[in-house]
Backbone:
């Protein structure tokens, strides 16, 4: 098993078939259910997550779940487009989601080493909390992100399932999401170039010169853009902002503090933190 997991190509193929299987099961479950569409989506999403979780246990690697964040929304938006057709509002949402998901999945593939490699955060949890790690593994690493993604996808589901007429204001939300896509793409490229130098120092170039987490800012803005696109055509569903909000809070109170704590081990972090914004990639006034 170890030799298989160490082979990058075989690992890619395994991940591909795992996700193809999980997606197929999710689609079958969704179409078999007769509840409201948003309940069907929740159940199908949960079943797909449990499927991925089972394979992560099989390969003893929770990073099997890592692509789920970017793959699930793309699958949902394409499936709804096939099922319900595409109006102009839905087209803008679909383009934004596919661009975002494709970029994030490509970025994952670029950094993916093999099935022996696991995210440092998962290893940290496993070492610090060995007794309760199985609970953390399922609810924290797998199911909680799925719920966040699900809540973010709800505006997409409603936009496709409810009749609506085109509102030019949709373009504002589209611009926000596309700007988020570009922000993430640029920051990722800058990070990859920096890591290729293997200096093991703090990145201080491009967007990262002004922001410690420009990629996270892009992730946050993406889902506010999707929500705004839905809101312009379905204002009565204003409460669906909960997805973008929870996603926002997750980055502010979980992802960013963890990343900063790890970076703080590098020399010069305190000065870097003083000179940069947490998110906004603009010059910071310092006294």
Residues:
């Amino acid at each position: 098993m170890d030799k298989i997991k160490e082979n990058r190509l075989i690992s890619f193929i395994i991940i591909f078939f795992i996700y193809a299987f999980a997606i197929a099961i999710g689609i079958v479950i969704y179409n078999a259910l007769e509840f409201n569409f948003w309940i069907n989506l929740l159940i199908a999403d949960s079943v797909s997550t449990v499927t991925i979780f089972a394979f992560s246990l099989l390969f003893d690697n929770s990073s099997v779940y890592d692509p789920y964040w970017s793959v699930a929304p793309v699958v949902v938006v394409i499936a709804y487009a096939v099922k319900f057709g595409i109006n102009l509002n839905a087209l803008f949402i679909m383009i934004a989601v596919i661009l975002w998901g494709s970029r994030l999945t490509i970025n994952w593939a670029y950094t993916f080493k093999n099935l022996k490699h696991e995210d440092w955060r998962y290893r940290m949890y496993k070492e610090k909390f060995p007794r309760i790690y199985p609970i953390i593994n399922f609810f924290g690493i797998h199911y909680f992100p799925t719920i966040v993604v699900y809540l973010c996808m709800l505006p997409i589901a409603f936009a496709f399932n409810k009749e609506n007429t085109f509102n030019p204001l949709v373009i504002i939300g589209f611009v926000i999401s596309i700007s988020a896509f570009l922000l993430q793409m640029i920051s990722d490229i800058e990070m990859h170039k920096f890591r290729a130098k293997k200096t093991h120092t703090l990145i201080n170039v491009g967007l990262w010169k002004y922001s410690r987490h420009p990629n996270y800012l892009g992730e946050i803005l993406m889902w506010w853009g999707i929500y705004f696109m839905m809101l312009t055509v379905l204002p009565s569903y204003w409460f669906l902002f909960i997805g973008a909000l929870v996603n926002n809070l997750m980055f502010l109170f979980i992802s960013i503090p963890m990343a900063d704590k790890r970076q703080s081990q590098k020399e010069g972090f305190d000065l870097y933190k003083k000179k940069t914004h947490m998110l906004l990639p603009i010059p910071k006034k310092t006294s």
Residues 2-275 form one domain. The two ends are 56 Å apart (CA to CA). The chain has a mean pLDDT of 95.
